[in-house]
Amino acid sequence: MIRRIISKVFGRKSRASGAQILPQSKHGIRREQIDDCALKTCETLAQAGFKGYLVGGAVRDLLLDKTPKDFDVATDATPEEVRRLFRRSRIIGRRFQIVHVMCGRATIEVTTFRANGQKEAEDDDERPTDEHGRLLSDNVFGSMGDDAARRDFTINALYYDPAREEVHDYFGGVADCKTRVLRMIGDPETRYREDPVRMLRVARFAAKLDFHIDPDTRKPVATLAPLLANIPRARIFDEALKLLMSGHALRGVHQLRAEGLHHGMLPLLDTILDDPTGERFINAALKTTDARIAQDKPASPAFLFGTLLWPQVLQRWRALEAAGEKPQPALFAAMDEVLDAQRGQLAIPRRYDGMMKEIWALQPRFEQRGGQRPYRLLEHPRFRAAYDFLLLRAESGEVDAELGEWWTRFQEADDDERATMLLADSSPKPRRRRKRKKPGDAGGEAHPA
Ligand code: ATP
Ligand code: MG
Fold this sequence. Notes:
Bound molecules: adenosine-5'-triphosphate, magnesium ion
Radius of gyration: 26 Å
Helix content: 40-55%
CATH topology of the largest domain: Beta Polymerase, domain 2
Strand order of the largest sheet: 1-2-9-8-3-4-7-6-5
CATH superfamily of the largest domain: Beta Polymerase, domain 2
Number of domains: 2
Largest sheet: 9 strands, mixed
Number of helices: 23
Distance between the termini: 81 Å
CATH class of the largest domain: Alpha Beta
Strand content: 5-15%
CATH architecture of the largest domain: 2-Layer Sandwich
Mean pLDDT: 85
Structural class: alpha+beta
């Protein structure tokens, strides 16, 4: 009895697994904070005699009083056993099988406990399968303790049992949440060598959670960063996208730079961040994306990648113009060159090309403010995105602030006001030779179009 009271207040150590087991009074997570579907999934598993715990990001976010983005469940049932338990479910992935359990409009990811430091591939459907021989080892099932040990950070290896309202903590993740420390499980160097992408995850989580990186976790990164060169680019892209869409892209990108990791992930940031206009532009773009995500507004990856690549497009555009090309063909050639070049680096999927190009191609049309042209531009399906893009260019000083303001007013104005706003001379000005400038230096002046 006394032991029960003590363990209720202080938690207890499981002799079988070595995990610290914390009662509700110690971890403070309330069942009401948890998605009904996730609870139901754990319950169904338990009724069938299996374990069913919430795991990973959701438990961490609940401890930090944040609203989890999604709820993942870990179980000792095999994928096939899970699938049989839920009518609306399907097994996904080949090398690393997980089960998607559909519940209302939500999907709960159910993962079977895995052993050893295998590479994470939960969403590996699109992952290239160039690492032969990993097929079997990626599906080696294990105990819950094994499963905890193969995870990356202590704060990501927490398991919540909804039935008993207990948290199982294998590596001190609850304490690390309290002191806001990001700590790799096991020997950091070994863990980075097993999977170099974990280095990018350090930057992502430190930025997203505003956590301090434990010195031992940070230390090997500087020397091991080049290992990222051997990772399939699609995987790097996935991790980059997670960082950029995390709501803390600005901090994340600067974190990467501080860790010397932007070479591997966004090589283009190398050049951009060293150029003052480029840096102002990217910072403005990342800040806007973060703000949109904070307000639950949709943020489009294509728009964001369009901004990340813009300083290069601009630089090429200017160079081609300086070499005598006409503005419009010069812009189109610059777009293609930059898109081709980045494919060797970051592998932005082609599905984003169309939208990026449309946004870029519309930029010169904002300069044309007479006759019917502004009205036609307003009607363009991509007007809104292109206008948002223009505002970023204005904010960074690449074009006159006045141009952005004009378009803001023009949209809000009624017909009569619009007519008075039109500028007399809207046709492209005859080309004058521009002074040669340092690449990327926009000098705060509108680009002639
Ligand atoms: P978020 O809320 O940002 O999605 P998350 O913790 O859910 O955070 P995911 O990338 O979705 O992060 O991964 C889910 C879980 O899988 C992590 O919490 C971690 O335990 C484990 N994991 C993911 N990637 C790795 C990896 N490369 N190495 C080890 N464990 C990993
Ligand atoms: Mg997640």
